[in-house]
Write a structure and sequence with these properties.
The complex is a heterodimer of chains A (about 130) and B (about 325).
Chain A lengths: L7 E2 L4 E2 L3 H25 L7 E2 L2 E2 H21 L7 H35 L7
Antiparallel strand pairs in A: 1-2, 3-4
Chain B lengths: L25 H30 L7 H4 L14 H25 L3 H31 L4 E4 L4 E6 L7 H4 L30 H10 L3 E8 L5 E3 L2 H11 E5 L12 H34 L1 H5 L3 H26 L1
C-alpha cells in the first residue's frame, strides 16, 4: 500500500521531511492563527473597526483567518492534498458554491427584515 | 444455461467496474460525501444564525460580554480564554488522530492504540468543557429585566460596569411566592423555577441606589450598548419591566435576544452531539485496534475513515468559534 504524501505547504515554501513532521508543522501554524484571532478578539484594535464592505474590518480578518485554518485542516489533516483533483473538486466546489449561495440569500433577507423593522411601520420597541 | 451472460465485455474500461476512478475506496468516498452533506447542515444553521443576527444587527448580544468565565476563576473577567482553550484541545485531538492514521499506514499497532487513546481523551475534555460552558450560560451571572416588548434591560453603574441584581435588589421575604409543583395543586399544571426577585423588588432596589443605571440592548456607534439616564432608567423599568430574567433558556435570555440563546443551544448542542458520537465511534475503533482486527486485515483504513469524521468535527468548531465568539 503506497501512501505518498505531498510534504510541502505554502505552495512549496515550507517542505517537511516526513508526514509526521508536516502534521506538527501544521499544528504550529494553526495554533499561531488561533492565537492571533484570540489576541485580536481581546484587544479589538481601534484601527480595524472601520467598515469594509458592510462589515467591520476586524470581522473580515476573523473570517479570512478561519478559512485559512479550514484549508489547512482539510488539506493536511484530512489529506485532501493527496486526493485526486476530481474528488477534491467534487467535494470542495460543491460545498463552497452551495454555502455561498445560502449565505447570500439569508444575509440579504436578514438585512431586509432589519430595515423593515427600522424604517417600516412594524416596530419592535419598548 | 450456457447462454447466460457472465461478463459484459466492458472489463478494463473506465466504467466496467472494479476500478477506482477517484482513487479512493468506497468507504472513504462515502465518508467524504457524508461530510459534504453534514457541512451543508451546519452551514444551514450558521447561516440561519447570521440571518437572525442581521435581523437584529443593532441589538445583538456582544459575545465578549456573554462568555467571560473560566473554571475555578470566579469574578475574573476572562473573555474567550476558555473557548480558545477548547479550540486548542480539539485541534490537538485532531493532530493525535492524524498521527494515528499515519501510524496506521506504517501498520504500527502500538502507536495507533496510543494516539487513538489520546484522541478520545481530547474529545472527552472538549465535551466536558462544552457542558461547563452550557452550565455557566444557563445559570447566568448578572440577571436582567425583560420588558413587555421582549427586550432585555441590564444594569450598570455610573462607570459602565455591570451590576448584578443581587448587588442592589433585596428580596422581600414577606410576599415570597412558592413555586407551583404538581403535588401542590392541579396535577397537570406545573411551572418553572421562579426568579429570585420580582419586578417590584427590582424597582425598589433601583430607586434606592442612585448609582445604578439601565443598559439597553441597542448598540451605539462606538459598538457599545446604550446606557440610559437615571430618570429614563427608572421610567423604563417601572413602565415596561415585566419579568426578571436570570440566566438563559429557550424562552428568555438575560444576555439579550432570546434567539441568541436558542442558536447557542442548537448549534453548539448539535456540534457537541457530533463530538460525542465521534468519541463513541473512536472508542469502537480503538477497541478494534486493540483486538487486532486491522492488524489481521493488514489495513488501517477504518482509522482513516473515522479520522475524516473527527477532523470534520474540528473543522466545524473552527467556524462555530469564529461566528459565535469572535465576529
Amino acid at each position: 500500500m503506497a501512501h505518498e504524501h505531498k510534504l510541502a505547504i505554502f505552495r512549496g515554501l515550507v517542505k517537511f521531511k516526513s508526514n509526521t513532521q508536516k502534521i506538527w508543522g501544521v499544528l504550529i501554524f494553526l495554533t499561531i492563527v488561533t492565537a492571533i484571532e484570540v489576541i485580536l478578539g481581546i484587544l479589538k484594535p481601534e484601527a480595524l473597526m472601520g467598515q469594509v464592505l458592510g462589515m467591520k474590518a476586524l470581522n473580515w480578518i476573523f473570517i479570512i483567518l478561519t478559512i485559512v485554518k479550514a484549508y489547512y485542516i482539510t488539506w493536511d489533516f484530512m489529506h485532501m492534498r493527496d486526493e485526486l483533483k476530481s474528488l477534491r473538486r467534487m467535494v470542495v466546489w460543491t460545498t463552497i458554491f452551495l454555502i455561498l449561495y445560502l449565505i447570500f440569500i439569508l444575509l440579504q433577507e436578514g438585512g431586509y427584515v432589519f430595515n423593515v423593522y427600522k424604517d417600516g411601520f412594524i416596530k419592535r420597541d419598548f | 444455461m450456457s447462454t447466460t451472460v457472465v461478463n459484459t465485455g466492458t472489463e478494463g474500461k473506465t466504467w466496467g467496474g472494479g476500478n477506482k476512478p477517484l482513487n479512493a475506496s468506497y468507504g472513504k468516498m462515502m465518508m467524504w460525501f457524508f461530510i459534504v452533506s453534514d457541512a451543508l447542515t451546519f452551514s444551514g444553521f450558521l447561516a440561519a444564525y447570521g440571518f437572525s443576527r442581521f435581523k437584529f444587527i443593532d441589538s445583538w448580544p456582544i459575545a465578549d460580554e456573554v462568555f467571560t468565565h473560566f473554571p475555578f476563576l470566579h469574578g475574573v473577567n476572562a473573555p474567550m480564554y476558555y473557548v480558545a482553550f477548547m479550540t486548542f484541545v480539539l485541534i490537538m485531538s485532531s493532530v493525535t488522530m492524524v498521527l494515528a492514521v499515519d501510524a496506521g499506514h506504517h501498520l504500527n499497532k502500538a502507536k495507533v492504540t496510543l494516539y487513538m487513546f489520546l484522541t478520545i481523551i481530547g474529545g472527552l475534555i472538549f465535551v466536558g468543557s462544552q457542558a461547563w460552558e452550557w452550565g455557566t450560560f444557563i445559570k447566568g451571572d448578572y440577571g436582567a429585566v425583560q420588558t413587555k416588548g421582549g427586550n432585555i434591560l441590564q444594569f450598570v453603574d455610573t462607570e459602565g460596569h455591570r451590576v448584578a441584581l443581587r448587588d442592589f435588589v433585596v428580596a422581600d421575604s414577606h410576599n415570597e411566592r412558592t413555586q407551583h409543583e404538581r403535588k401542590g395543586g392541579l396535577w397537570f399544571v406545573s411551572e418553572g423555577t421562579l426568579p429570585t426577585y420580582t419586578v417590584e423588588e427590582v424597582v425598589h432596589g433601583l430607586e434606592s441606589h442612585d448609582n445604578v443605571l439601565v443598559r439597553t440592548q441597542i448598540i451605539n456607534e462606538a459598538g457599545e450598548k446604550m446606557v440610559l439616564s437615571r430618570a429614563e432608567s427608572l421610567r423604563q423599568i417601572k413602565e415596561n419591566g415585566k419579568v426578571v430574567v436570570e440566566g438563559a433558556n429557550l424562552h428568555v435570555n438575560e444576555y439579550g435576544s432570546p434567539l441568541f440563546a436558542d442558536f447557542f443551544f442548537f448549534i453548539t448542542g448539535f456540534h457537541g452531539f457530533h463530538v460525542f458520537s465521534g468519541v463513541v465511534i473512536n472508542i469502537i475503533i480503538f477497541f478494534n485496534v486493540i483486538l487486532g482486527t486491522y492488524e489481521r486485515r493488514k489495513n488501517y483504513e477504518m482509522v482513516e475513515k473515522v479520522g475524516l469524521y473527527w477532523h470534520f468535527v474540528d473543522l466545524v468548531w473552527v467556524f462555530v468559534f469564529t461566528f459565535f465568539y469572535l465576529v
